[in-house]
Amino acid sequence: MSTQQATSSRNSPTLVLVTLFFGVFVMGCAELLVVGVLDLIAADLRVSVSAAGALVTSFALGIAIGGPAVTMLTMKMNRRTVLIGAIIVFVLANLVLVVASDFGVFVAARFVAGAVEGLFIGIAFVTGMSIVPPERAGRAISMIISGVTVSAAVGVPLGTLASQGLGWRGSFTTIIVLCVVALIATVALVPSVPGTGRGAAGQAKYAFAPRVLAMLSLNVVVFASLYTALTYIVPFLRNVTGVTGAVVSVFLFAYGLATAVGSFGGGRFADRNAAGTLIVATTGTAIALLALYFVGSIPILVALVLLAWGMLAMSMAPSLQLRVLTLAGPGGGLASSLPASAVNVGIAAGSAAGGVAISDFGPSSPMLTGAIIAAIGIVLAWATSYLKPPVIEQATEPAGRPS
């Protein structure tokens, strides 16, 4: 038994994973809640809706840039201490949103919140993997990463609904209360997990090795494909499928639930064969997006394809994270936060690509564009399946996970 496993054996791994899931879920709700109340915030702060969109951008930049930066600064610290500190800073950042009225302060607070969310998620992955046997690492990752998908599927719609009665500041106050619950649970249930003995320089050569960068490029392509289509799914449903009003919400809710199911179930596939899972799932998403393009005018078929697409797309998430951590070997502590950065790069690239497509070729074109990007993902998934972890990890890093 490793030092980390021995340290954590006094606590139920299931309870620890549920605690980490809840922390990620609450942070995910806070991240995406802004989208549902953007017009309310803009009116209250007397800025345009387009200017208020900077609150979304700053959070994404916080995850992409701030997350890896603060991870580098905290690598030698006890994982439990880092998780607790991240929640405390997250609470303070959201408290700023409740009490402040200066838009510039809002933007800065959102960047800080994004940075500590990126930190929390990365450290949660490392902590979760340390308390389970190697053959269950993928399932541990899937439990934690499902906090993001469940927050998108359930938490955000509920939060947006609550804002109608509580106001947008009241909704963020609710987030703060839930964060305090997550903080108490983390203090009570998450065990002490020692940090790495290597500093940033010692881990960087492994975390940024070509094999890891190749896997991160697959992360970018996978999420670029997803968000090329997903960003413009509402215009597609309205103009091509012909559904409007509340029916659109039903389609989106079904898709959200499918992503949650996919992320939960994807852990088992990651444990069996993470590299093979990525080949199958990228192929499946390409086919699903092509199907949307060709059957977009038939509502029942669109609904079925959305379910399949959601499950396939998010079933890859645990395998992507596990492969990055595995290939990083001794640099896994630093590498744990890099997939979140790659995901945000992919989201930005995909949204831009979809925007160009829909402007030039109409509402169905983001589906076809997403399918083309997914095809590139198939090639990358196949190529990266041959990558192997550094040999040194077997001798110096017993916590490494074979894929």
Structural overview:
- This protein is mainly α and 403 residues long.
- It has 17 helices and no strands.
- It has helices spanning 3-8, 13-36, 38-45, 49-52, 54-73, 79-99, 103-130, 137-189, 200-207, 210-230, 233-241, 246-295, 299-328, 332-335, 338-361, 365-384, 392-396.
- Helix 5 (54-73) crosses helix 7 and helix 10 (210-230) packs parallel to helix 15.
- The chain starts with a helix and ends in a 7-residue tail after the last helix.
- The model is unreliable at 1-9 and 393-403 (pLDDT under 50).
Give a quick rundown of the structure.
The chain is an all-alpha fold and 403 residues long.
Which terms would index this structure?
403 residues, mainly alpha, Growth Hormone, Chain: A, 17 helices, 83% helix, globular, disordered C terminus, DHA1 family inner membrane transport protein, transmembrane, cell membrane, MFS
